[in-house]
Structures are given as C-alpha cells and as structure tokens.
UniProtKB/TrEMBL annotation:
SUPFAM superfamilies named in the record: Winged helix' DNA-binding domain (SSF46785)
Gene3D superfamilies: Winged helix-like DNA-binding domain superfamily/Winged helix DNA-binding domain
Keyword DNA-binding: yes
Region of interest called Disordered, as start-end residue ranges on this chain: 465-497
Name of the protein described by the UniProt record: RFX-type winged-helix domain-containing protein
InterPro entries: DNA-bd_RFX (IPR003150), RFX-like (IPR039779), RFX1-4/6/8-like_BCD (IPR057321), WH-like_DNA-bd_sf (IPR036388), WH_DNA-bd_sf (IPR036390)
Keywords: DNA-binding, Nucleus, Transcription, Transcription regulation
Classification of source organism: Eukaryota, Metazoa, Ecdysozoa, Arthropoda, Hexapoda
Single Gene Ontology MF annotation: DNA-binding transcription factor activity, RNA polymerase II-specific
Protein location: Nucleus
Primary location group: nucleus
Protein source organism: Nezara viridula (Southern green stink bug)
C-alpha cells in the first residue's frame, strides 16, 4: 500500500517547484533554504514539515541533488549543490527590486537573495524598523579546545567535533533569521531540529544524520570542552539578540512588539526543555540556564521600557511636576536619613547631594533621557572608587540595596502624608529602581569581562561572576521580580487620574 502524502508535504513540494529548479554549478545553504520554507509557512499560517522530512522532499523533487560542505575548516556550511532559484521566483524578484543580488545587510534590515547564498526577503515590516543592528549578532565562534590526552567518545573523531561547531553556527544563523523577521514561533522548531526531537530521524533519511548522527551529537555533548563552547557562545549570542530586539530600553516601541517579545520570552524555557528531552543532563542545564537568563532579561527590559513610556508622560506634565515638588519639600528627609544611615550606613554627604540634585533636576523639568543621564552619573560616581578592585560586584549590590531602601523610605513618608502626587512618585520610583538595576548590571558585566546575561545567569551551569567569597549576583534579581505586573496596573491608574 502506498502511503498518502500529508497536506504539509504536498504544500512543501509545491513551494519547492514554484521557486527552485535544477542547475549545475550553483549551490544554496541548506539551513537558510529550510529557514525560508519556515518563513513561507509562518506567513501563510501553514504547519511546516520538520527538517528531516524537508530534506527528503527536496531529494524527491530534485533527483540527483548533491550535498557539499563548503567553506574553511571550522566555518564550513552544508549546501545543496545543483539547485537554484527560478527566474520567476518572488524571492528573486524582491532581490532585483532592491537593486542587486549581491550579499546581504542584516544591520539595515534589507536582505537580498543570490544564487550562492539565499538571504532574507527585502521588504521589512514596520515593527522590524524598531529592531537594532543584527549584522554582528552572531559572535565569532571560538574553537572547541580538546586537551591533549582527553579521550573522545567511542567512534567520535576531531572531525565530528568540527562538524558540531559548524552546525551550531548554522543553528545560530537560522535562530537570528527568525528573530530578525519576528518569527518567534519557528524557534521551537529550530531547537527540535538541532537536538533531533523531531520524528523521522532515520540515519539514512535525515539530513542532519548525514552530517552528525544523533548518537554522536549526544556523545559529543557530554564532553566538557563542548559544553564550555556552547555556554560561551550562547551567552554572547543571546546578549546580542537582546540588543537586536531592544536596542534602546528607553526608546518608545509599539505595544504589539513589546507583547510579542514578552510572549516569546515566556515560552523559551518550555520550548527548549521539550526539544532537549533525552539529551545529556549537563548540556540541558547549560542551555536552559542561558535561555532562562535570556527570557528574564527580555521580560525585565520590556517592563523597563513600559515604565519609561508611562513616566515620560509624567515628566512632561508641568502641573504634576509642580505637585511633586511641593510634596517632596514636605518630606522629613532628616528622619529618612537617620533611619537609612542606621540600616544601610549610607554616606550622609552623598545622600544630601543626591537629594539636592534630585530636586534640582525635577524643578528644571528634565526629559526622561536627561534623568537617565543623571542616574548613570550617580552609578559611575558611587562605583568609581571600586573600579578595578576585587570588591566591585559586592559594592554594586550594596548600591542597589541602599538605593532601594532609601527610596522606599521616601515613598513611605509620602504615603503617610497622603501626598497628592503619590502615584507619580511611585511610578518614577519603579522606573528609577529598574533603570538603576539595568545600569549596575552592565557595570558589573563590564568589570568582569562578560555579558549582562551571563552575570544574571544561575549557578546551575557553574557561573558566578561575583567575588569568590561573595553571594551569587542572582540574589539581586529579587529586587525586580515584583515590578512587572505592578507597572502595568499603576500606569492604568495614572491614566485615570
């Protein structure tokens, strides 16, 4: 009995026939071709076939199609050799409309198609205009250093290690393509493809199996040098993805994009955990730890952005500013300072200077960006004596704790006095706490020579960028965990008042 082709397979074959034809001397990267198929399915609300099935369909449509590994050692990619775009393909037409077929420009978000390298569609959606430069998002992949004498798994070779490095880069490229095109739903598919949790992974039929079998992939993933490679690449790559999605935490972005990013962040851990079922536990821990840090960072930054836009309206309202000044002048700062000094051992002179600066900056009705510059100057001033010293991370944590305690005391005083501008102050306080955390996070990352995402990562993958005798930097995240839902409800109240 002949098995009936699924609707997804029929659709994939039709798409291939409409856009490609056999041709000698021409090659297309395997990963980008499949990624364009995923995009086609996403745009047309179709269920895609997995990578393994897609590879079989290509070979069934284009008989005699060959696969070649092109590029220098360590940076090679697998290409389909003997296939090209049709002259009538809409992808090719888009490329010609953009003024040529050479190369690509991820940073400008205008991507072109060539016969040797298939890149992104030229037309950018309005939401994509809010994204940052993605041209350098894929980091320079380090070599996988295998120490002399380290035994390799049975039937695995250094060539297999090199293959892992190559397909990991391909995976990152496909990941970036999906992010740049805001096709978050394809990320789960990409993870399932790489870690072979898709069906039909028969060694003779699956494209991935021809380059690195699932058995070898899992065996190699147990090697400590490979795990260190993945950890290092993921933290660098995910940090770059944050910069692509949210290039400026204070810049207004559409609520639809904010919500899409938050939904994406919410699904990351479950998608990856599902895709890595059966993988070596140590590798799972490393991957999930990095992805959790990515998700947490995206949630925090979108909350910060939401707070910034709500606070911008307050800072531009002279009536509210005048009321805030009047209420602030009634605060018993002497009592606040006494309590803060006893609990936090705050420098009285520094606190007095910050209080005066705050009032002056509020009175001059500075913009949000000017307030941000003031906060940055505060962080730089307080942490300057510790820069280059072992206690920098501990000092940074203390700054966050003292700032949070002192500001909470001021809010307490305003609350007891039933200040008319309490809502405005509470919103500003949330924003400044969140932005202060953002600044300190980046300062610690710079001081420790790592990325902010790595600073915030859990200890589950053996990372701790605080001092050896200090606590994990993750303890600082508790300051922010209760603010995400608070900001949205407060903003609604501010609109009603």
């Amino acid at each position: 009995m002949i098995a009936r082709a699924s609707p997804q397979a029929v659709s994939a074959v039709q798409w291939l026939l409409e856009n490609y034809e056999t041709a000698e001397g021409v090659s297309l990267p395997r990963s980008t071709l499949y990624n364009h198929y995923l995009r086609h399915c996403y745009e047309n609300k179709l269920d895609p076939v997995n990578a393994a099935s897609f590879g079989k369909l290509i070979r069934s449509v284009f008989l005699g199609l060959r696969t070649r590994r092109l590029g220098t050692r360590g940076n090679s990619k697998y290409h389909y050799y003997g296939i090209r775009l049709k002259a009538s393909s809409s992808l090719l037409c888009q490329s010609q409309d953009s003024g040529g077929e050479e190369g690509s420009s991820r940073g400008g978000k205008r991507f072109r198609v060539s016969q040797t390298k298939l890149e992104e569609p030229v037309q950018a959606t309005p939401l994509q205009e809010y994204l940052g430069d993605s041209s350098q998002a894929i980091p320079e992949l380090p070599e996988v250093e295998i120490p002399p004498g380290l035994p390799l798994p049975h039937m695995c070779s250094l060539e297999d290690i090199d293959t892992f490095r190559s397909i990991y880069r391909e995976h990152c490229e496909a990941f970036l393509d999906a992010i740049v095109n805001l096709e978050f739903a394809t990320i789960e598919t990409l993870w399932r493809e790489f870690w072979r949790s898709q069906e039909n992974t028969n060694g003779d039929e699956c494209e991935e199996e021809k380059y690195l079998s699932k058995t070898k992939l899992f065996m190699i993933s147990k090697l400590r040098p490979v795990q260190e490679f993945v950890k290092r690449v993921d933290f660098l790559f995910y940090q770059n993805l944050v910069q692509v999605l949210i290039p400026d935490v204070l810049r207004p972005i559409p609520s639809s994009l904010t919500q899409a990013i938050r939904n994406f962040a919410k699904g990351l851990e479950s998608w990856l955990s599902s895709a890595m079922v059966g993988c070596p536990p140590d590798m799972v821990d490393i991957k999930v730890s990095a992805v959790c840090a990515l998700g947490q960072t995206l949630r925090r930054y979108t909350s910060l952005n939401h707070l910034a836009q709500a606070a911008r309206a307050v800072l531009q309202n002279s009536v509210q500013i005048n009321q805030m000044l009047a209420d602030l002048n009634r605060v018993d700062f002497h009592n606040v300072q006494e309590q803060a000094s006893w609990v936090c051992e705050c420098d009285g002179g520094l606190v007095a200077r910050l209080e005066a600066d705050f009032k002056t900056t509020l009175q001059t009705q500075n913009s949000l960006e000017e307030w941000a510059s003031w906060l940055k100057a505060v962080v730089n001033s307080v942490l300057k004596p510790y820069r280059g010293r072992r206690g920098f991370s501990a000092a940074a944590r203390q700054l966050l704790l003292k700032w949070s305690f002192y500001s909470s005391m001021v809010i307490r005083d305003l609350t007891l006095r039933s200040a008319a501008s309490f809502g405005s102050f509470h919103l500003i306080r949330l924003l400044y706490d969140e932005y202060m955390f953002y600044l300190v996070e980046h300062q610690v990352a710079s001081a420790t020579g790592t990325s902010p995402i790595a600073v915030m990562a859990t200890k589950s993958c053996g990372l701790d960028y605080s001092e050896r005798n200090g606590n994990n930097n993750n303890n600082n995240t508790n300051i922010n965990n209760n603010k995400e839902g608070e900001s949205e409800s407060l903003t609604k109240k501010m609109r009603l008042s």
